[in-house]
Structures are given as structure tokens and as C-alpha cells.
């Protein structure tokens, strides 16, 4: 009824190729973006720091990994390490050139991650699937070892950690201890929106189509004139770029500091779960997966004690933790059985149903 | 209901549960809010559970016996970190809105995250003998406290101890001292002190790093130990690494009395792994082991007998359980002193910061609390947030920890300048590090 395209005519090829062909979708996106900015003004500290900032950063990392796994069909287990490359590159750049704005360095740090990604992506022409995953696992361990054992990377800091120095944007501190949550949130939100828009253009354009062709059948893609090495390395570069920027944002706009252990293999799996649950080869799926995997445990931590309270059951912290593992694990299995294509596919089905509602055929 | 519909219902449920986040935390009851960041799950739970129970039980005892501190109840709440930095920061964020008077992160990683935020948020950080050693400089870190000693103090006591056994520092020349450590910032902490002392006294330092993923698989490191035959080994490990090291030392035939752990390598589970063969294994400690202290009787009557504790009755007196209680004692004393200084009943984070800065626990006070012989007197000042206090070597007799040595002073004159340098370095690396403006009451 409400969600219907009747009366919306497309008069140009451009309009036909639009990412959001329906007016309702465009309005919806505008409302979500407006609500996201409003959250920065009205949201509580907990909502911003513990929920929204990490959610946005993980979404960006998931988009990065989705480019590689979902669009180009190359499996990677090195996401955590590539996030680390972005973070350490950003730290070195920030401390070496303090006069340049930190946002520039956050965006630049992705290129270092991209270069490292391309290097470890080189074998992807010869090895595929599971074997490639193992090759990227080598990247994970090697890079993590570097973060720990090369003191130059953390400026010979005794604690071995990298810490965010004070940096400002338009005179407002956005990194370091004195940066307000609101300032950090707005920077994160804006960067994620801009980068998502960039990713959307990438995957809908020529390069994205090459990736999908490679993913669906690389020999056929080669026959129609796509250069596999080119396309695969491009996928590694773009993926690592987004992942690296997410890593830099994670350390400087969320944590405020980190040690090498933050970029361990658990982090890689965490992001991989997000895109599997959210939906491979879908940008909105990256957001949905990040929301489910990251926010659900937090939600459970709040809901479970509240559920137990009326019955006089005190749910203690460790029990919540165990319940979180069980519930999230069960949900992952449930979703994979019900909809192996992830939340994004469910969302698509829901939209399709709404288009014909209330007169289904 | 079809499978698809079920899914849609599930999604709707998920959305409802996430919106619950926006609902503000439940109304506050009157009291002093003391959050405990603990870990009863994850790879370090073995060490985390006794500490969590110790911290929790001591504060509960104060509530039950005295009705809190100065007549105000303590609101004790645990948040599970799993020794995971991300979760720890999330915990900190969730407790911060309820005006905590102090946080104890109980993890070096989480402490490092919270140090820059402490001053901004007005929440003092108590990192008892862990975290950043440089935080002992109160001029640079007015909001961070690491009594009673830093890792650097610990390493200096270790060298003092082996010098004693060799009959003086001059006999250390030509000896080899091994450092078996977790290959992480925590494990590498003692290196600068050991190297400085090695240069001074002419012994060699051999490093044996163990990566976090190899904690339970130290075979290759111990092969190297067998080849080098270091005269002494200092063990700076945590969690599963410690019992493995003790077991491997016994298996390799390394003289167990020459293996000496830092205080975090001195849990009952760590030594028990070697059983009676581990008799003679030593670890530094700043709290007594065993249950023969009057205050532990109070904990048994007021907490265990009322069924308010999760800790097994027969394990009361375990080293790490006692250490958790020591940690809570520091919190309680800081709150009490804060009440004295400010005259307020319900104190804030800023007040407790002043309380921590004026911590002065004398022999008399220890006796008053029923802690005679349990801990050394403690004195924290505005300049010195650690105090570099005495520690002793606990010795495993095959079944339990015993007091293996007298209380020993660390080499403060050597450690202190290193700390001041490190603090300067930290402040320089973090441009815009605030100058101290906080009042000093001593």
C-alpha cells in the first residue's frame, strides 16, 4: 500500500540504474541518516560510546571484508591484521606529521593497508578458496607478530601500546582523552557514510561487476576479457583499504589506544561472522550483520537481568556471559538454516512482500 | 506458522531487544557505587574467579558486618570482561553513567585504555600492582594508582633475593638470569630493570618469550632453557602460562627453587600443577596466604555462612582469593579516608581520588582491621602513587603457600628515576597531556 512503486516512472538510463530506484527507499535512507545525526545530539553516552560508534566502525570493516569475500569470492582470515596495519600506519603518520589533520591521516592509512593487502593477495591468482584463507591466515600471524616485535611501529613506547594523541578538527578535539563523544561520533558517522557511498559506487560500477564475474566463474570471466590478477588484486586493495580505515578509526576514534593483541584472529572471525550473518555480497547486509553480532550481546546483557528480576532470579555477570554465547551461537545456526543468504536476503524478501501488500498474488 | 514467518518474528524480537538499550538504567538507590570489572569466563578465568570472589566477598562482608562504610551501603556490581579489552571498555562505559567512585580494570590492556580517560571522566583507576608502571608518578597521573608496588619493584626484589642467596651482589657476576615471560607488554615490563641491574652487577640476562597462543605449549622454550642452564629464572606469566611453566620446569629437571615468579605467577592453581614436586617454587607476594587472620573469620561468618559467596568454602585462604580481598581493602580504605577528608557520607569519584592519595595504612590500622601480618603498611602520597612497598617471597610447600622470606624492600632509589623518566615519556608522547591541577591533601 505505502511501499509501492506505481506512478514512479524512469525516463533515463541513469534513473534506471539508480541504487535506490524507489522514492520510498530514498526517503527511508534520508530518515535513517537524519536519525543517526540526531542520535549524536540526543543519545546517551553509553549509546554513543558502547553501541553506535563501534557498530559503525565494525560495519565499515564488514563492508571491507564483504568486498573481498562477498563480491570477489576470495576468502580471507586476515581482517584483524589488516585493521592493525591501518591503525599502526595512522599512528606513525599522526606522530610523524602532527601538523596534518588527523582525518586526512585516517583516510590515508587505508592505503598502507591496501598495499599490504595487495602483497598478501598476490598468491590469490594461483590458490583459491580454503587454501587462500590459509594464506591470509599467514598474513594475520605475521602482521600481528610485527605489531608486537617491531618497536619502531609503536614509537618505542614502554607499554608497547599505541595511544591517540590530541588532534583537532576545526578546533574541536576529536582524538585523545579530551575529545567529546559527540565530536568523535559525528566524525565516525560522516566517514562511514562517505565511505559506504564510495563502496556502493565501486560495487555497482565496472570494477564491482568484474569482481562478481570472477566470483561466479573465473574462467568465464577471463574469456570475456577480465584480467583475473588485476581484478583480484583490486579486490584485495579496496577491501584492505576499507578494513584499514576501520582499524584506524577503531583505535583513534573509539578505543583511544590499543596493543597488538586487539588485532588478533578473534577480531578476524568476528568480522567474518558479521558478513556471513548479514549476507555475502550486500552492503546493507554488512550493517545488519554488525548490528546483530555486536549489538545483540549488549542487548542481552541489559534484557536478561531485567527478565529475571520480576521472578526474583538474580542473573549475575558470568551467567549473562555464558547465556550470551549460547543465545548468539544458537541464533547464528538458526539464521544459517533458515536463510543462508543472511539478513540482507530476509530484508529483500520483506521488501518484496511489502510491495504487493495487502494484495499478494 | 511457516519457517519464514518465524524468522521475521525472530528479527522483530531482535529489534525489540536492541531498542531496550535506549531505555535508561534503572533508578539509583542511595549508596556508594563500586563496580567490579571481573572475569569469570574466558582463557584467564582460572585466575580471574578467585580474585573476583575475593573482591566481592570482602565488600559484601563490610556491608553485612558494618552496614557499609561510614554508615553508607556499598552498591557492588560485577561486570564481566572476559579479560577482553573491548568488553572491558564496554563495561567501563556501562558503569560510568552510574557514577562509580573507583574502577579496578584487572587487566593491563583495559587499564591502558582507561588511563587517558580517568581525568576527563573523574573516575580514579586503581590498578593494584599491574598496569602502567609509570603511573606511580602522581604528578603526571593524578587519577591512576598502582599500590603497593610496580613490576619494576618486583624485578628488583627478585634480584635482591638471588643476591642474598648467592651471598652478596658481588657474587652475581658471571651468573645467568633467565626471564620467562609472556610475549606482550605485560611480560616485557621487567626487562629494563633486569638489564640495568645486570650491567651494574655483571650478570647476564637471557630472555625466554612465550607467545600468547603458546602459553600451554612451552616445550621449545624449555629446550632452550635446558641448553643455556640459567642459574635463576624469573617468571612473568599469567593465566595458563604459569602452571605450564611450573610443570615444564619439573619435567626438564630444572631446580624448582631457582624458579621465582612475579606475584601474578603465585596462584594456588599455578603451583598445584606441579604437585608435591613443586615444593620450593617461589613467587613474590604482597598479601599473606592462608585463612588464619581475624578478618577472614568475619568473611566466613558474614558472607559464607549466609550463603552470599560463590567461592568454595574449602579454598578460603587461597593466594589469589586473599589478593582480591586485599584489593577491596584498598578501595574500602580509600572511601573511608575520603569520607574523613570531605566530611561527606556519600562520596564521589573526585573524593575517592583524594582518599587514595592519602591512603595511610599503618600497623595499627592493619591490626584494627584484623589484618596483622597479612600485609605490609602502606602509604600513598600525591607524588608517589605506588609507594614501592615491601613484598615477600611466598614458598610452595607442596600443598599450600607459606611465607618463604621476610618482607623485603624494593630498590626504590633505582626504580624511582626510571619511573619518572617513563612518565615524562608518556606525557610527551600524548601531546596535550593535562598538567596536574588537582588539589593535594598531604
Provide a quick synopsis of the model.
The complex is a heterodimer of chains A (361) and B (442). With 361 residues, chain A is mainly alpha-helical.
What does this entry look like structurally?
The complex is a heterodimer of chains A (361) and B (442). Chain A is mainly α and 361 residues long. Chain A has helices at 13-16, 23-42, 45-71, 79-96, 102-121, 129-149, 181-204, 206-216, 218-223, 228-255, 265-278, 283-308, 317-338, 342-356; strands at residues 162-163, 167-169, 172-175, 257-258. In chain A, the strands form two sheets. Chain A has a two-stranded antiparallel sheet. Chain A has a two-stranded antiparallel sheet with strand order 2-3. The longest helix of chain A is centred in the C-terminal third of the chain and has 28 residues, at 228-255. By secondary structure, chain B is of the alpha/beta class. Chain B has 15 helices and 13 strands. Mean pLDDT of chain B is 88; it is low at 18-28. At the A-B interface, α3, β4, α12, α13 and α14 of A face α1, β2, α3, α4 and α15 of B.
Key traits:
A: 361 residues; mainly alpha; two-stranded antiparallel sheet; globular; B: 442 residues; alpha/beta; seven-stranded mixed β-sheet; two-stranded parallel sheet
Task: Determine the most extensive contact between two protein chains.
Answer: A-B, 59 and 54 residues
Counting helices, strands and paired strands, the structural category of chain B is alpha/beta
- The coarse silhouette of chain A is globular
- Class derived from helix and strand content of chain A: mainly alpha
The major sheet of chain B is characterized as: 7 strands, mixed
**Overall radius of gyration of chain B:** 22 Å
State the end-to-end distance of chain B.
Answer: 71 Å
- Share of helix among residues of chain A? over 70%
What's the order of the H and E elements of chain A?
A: HHHHHHEEEHHHHEHHHH
Percent helix among the residues of chain B? 40-55%
Amino acid at each position: 500500500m505505502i511501499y509501492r512503486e506505481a506512478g514512479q516512472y524512469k525516463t533515463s538510463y541513469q534513473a534506471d540504474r539508480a541504487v535506490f530506484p524507489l522514492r520510498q527507499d530514498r526517503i527511508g535512507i534520508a530518515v535513517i541518516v537524519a536519525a543517526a545525526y540526531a542520535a549524536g545530539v540526543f543519545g546517551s553516552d553509553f549509546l554513543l560510546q558502547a553501541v553506535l560508534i563501534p557498530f559503525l566502525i565494525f560495519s565499515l570493516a564488514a563492508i571491507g571484508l564483504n568486498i573481498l569475500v562477498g563480491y570477489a569470492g576470495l576468502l580471507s582470515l586476515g581482517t584483524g591484521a589488516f585493521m592493525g596495519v591501518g591503525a599502526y600506519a595512522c599512528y606513525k603518520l599522526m606522530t610523524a606529521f602532527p601538523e596534518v589533520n588527523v582525518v586526512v591521516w585516517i583516510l590515508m592509512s587505508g592505503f598502507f593497508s591496501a598495499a599490504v593487502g595487495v602483497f598478501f593477495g598476490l598468491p590469490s591468482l594461483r590458490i583459491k578458496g580454503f587454501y587462500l584463507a590459509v594464506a591470509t591466515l599467514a598474513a594475520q600471524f605475521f602482521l600481528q607478530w610485527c605489531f608486537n616485535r617491531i618497536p619502531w611501529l609503536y614509537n618505542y613506547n614502554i607499554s608497547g601500546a599505541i595511544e591517540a594523541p590530541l588532534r583537532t578538527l576545526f578546533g574541536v578535539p576529536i582524538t585523545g582523552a579530551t575529545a567529546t563523544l559527540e565530536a568523535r561520533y559525528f566524525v565516525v558517522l560522516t566517514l562511514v557514510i562517505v565511505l559506504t557511498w564510495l563502496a556502493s559506487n565501486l560495487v555497482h560500477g565496472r570494477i564491482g561487476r568484474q569482481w562478481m564475474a570472477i566470483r561466479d566463474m573465473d574462467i568465464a570471466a577471463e574469456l570475456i576479457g577480465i584480467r583475473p590478477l588485476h581484478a583480484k588484486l583490486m579486490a584485495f586493495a579496496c577491501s584492505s583499504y576499507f578494513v584499514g580505515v576501520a582499524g584506524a578509526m577503531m583505535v583513534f576514534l573509539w578505543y583511544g589506544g590499543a596493543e597488538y593483541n586487539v588485532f588478533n584472529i578473534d577480531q578476524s572471525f568476528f568480522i567474518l561472522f558479521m558478513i556471513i550473518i548479514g549476507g555475502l555480497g550486500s552492503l546493507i547486509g554488512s550493517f545488519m550483520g554488525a548490528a546483530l553480532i555486536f549489538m545483540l550481546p549488549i542487548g542481552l546483557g541489559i534484557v536478561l537481568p531485567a527478565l529475571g528480576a520480576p521472578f526474583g532470579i538474580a542473573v549475575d555477570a558470568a551467567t549473562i556471559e555464558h547465556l550470551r554465547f549460547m543465545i548468539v551461537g544458537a541464533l547464528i545456526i538458526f539464521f544459517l538454516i533458515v536463510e543462508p543468504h543472511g539478513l540482507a536476503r530476509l530484508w529483500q524478501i520483506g521488501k518484496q512482500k511489502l510491495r504487493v501488500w495487502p494484495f499478494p498474488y | 506458522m511457516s519457517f519464514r514467518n518465524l524468522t521475521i518474528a525472530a528479527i522483530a524480537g531482535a529489534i525489540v531487544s536492541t531498542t531496550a538499550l535506549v531505555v535508561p538504567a534503572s533508578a539509583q538507590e542511595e549508596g556508594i557505587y563500586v563496580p567490579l570489572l571481573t572475569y569469570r569466563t574466558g582463557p584467564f578465568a582460572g585466575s580471574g574467579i578467585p580474585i573476583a570472589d575475593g573482591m566481592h566477598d570482602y565488600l559484601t562482608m563490610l556491608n553485612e558486618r558494618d552496614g557499609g562504610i561510614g554508615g553508607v551501603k556499598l552498591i557492588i556490581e560485577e561486570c564481566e570482561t572476559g579479560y577482553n579489552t573491548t568488553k572491558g571498555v564496554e563495561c567501563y562505559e556501562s558503569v560510568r553513567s552510574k557514577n562509580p567512585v573507583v574502577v579496578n580494570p584487572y587487566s593491563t590492556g583495559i587499564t591502558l585504555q582507561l588511563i587517558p580517560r580517568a581525568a576527563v571522566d573523574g573516575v580514579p583507576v586503581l590498578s593494584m600492582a599491574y598496569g602502567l608502571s609509570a603511573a606511580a608518578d602522581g604528578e603526571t597521573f593524578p587519577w591512576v594508582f598502582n599500590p603497593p608496588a610496580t613490576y619494576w619493584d618486583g624485578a628488583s626484589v627478585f634480584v635482591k633475593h638471588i643476591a642474598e642467596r648467592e651471598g652478596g651482589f658481588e657474587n652475581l657476576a658471571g651468573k645467568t638470569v633467565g626471564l620467562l615471560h609472556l610475549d606482550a607488554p605485560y611480560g616485557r615490563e621487567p626487562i629494563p630493570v633486569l638489564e640495568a641491574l645486570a650491567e651494574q652487577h655483571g650478570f647476564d640476562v637471557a630472555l625466554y618469550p612465550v607467545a600468547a597462543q603458546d602459553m600451554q605449549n612451552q616445550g621449545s622454550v624449555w629446550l632452550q632453557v635446558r641448553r643455556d642452564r640459567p642459574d635463576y629464572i624469573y617468571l612473568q606469566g599469567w593465566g595458563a602460562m604459569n602452571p605450564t611453566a611450573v610443570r615444564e620446569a619439573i619435567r626438564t629437571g630444572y631446580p624448582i627453587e631457582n624458579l621465582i615468579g612475579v606475584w601474578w605467577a603465585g596462584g594456588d592453581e599455578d603451583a598445584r600443577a606441579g604437585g608435591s614436586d613443586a615444593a620450593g617454587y617461589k613467587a613474590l607476594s604482597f598479601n599473606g596466604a592462608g585463612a588464619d587472620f581475624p578478618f577472614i573469620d568475619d568473611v566466613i561468618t558474614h558472607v559464607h555462612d549466609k550463603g552470599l559467596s560463590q567461592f568454595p568454602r574449602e579454598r578460603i585462604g587461597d593466594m589469589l582469593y586473599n589478593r582480591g580481598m586485599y584489593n577491596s581493602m584498598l578501595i574500602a580504605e580509600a572511601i573511608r579516608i575520603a569520607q574523613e577528608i570531605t566530611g561527606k557520607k556519600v562520596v564521589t569519584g573526585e573524593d575517592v581520588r583524594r582518599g587514595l592519595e592519602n591512603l595511610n595504612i599503618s600497623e595499627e590500622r592493619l591490626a584494627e582491621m584484623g589484618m596483622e601480618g597479612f600485609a605490609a603498611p602502606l602509604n600513598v602520597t600525591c607524588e608517589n602513587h605506588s609507594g614501592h612497598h615491601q613484598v615477600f617471597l611466598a614458598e610452595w610447600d607442596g600443598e599450600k603457600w607459606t611465607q618463604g622470606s621476610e618482607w623485603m624492600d624494593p630498590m626504590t632509589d633505582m626504580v624511582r628515576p626510571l619511573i619518572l623518566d617513563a612518565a615524562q615519556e608518556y606525557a610527551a608522547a600524548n601531546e596535550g597531556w593535562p598538567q596536574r591541577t588537582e588539589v593535594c591533601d598531604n
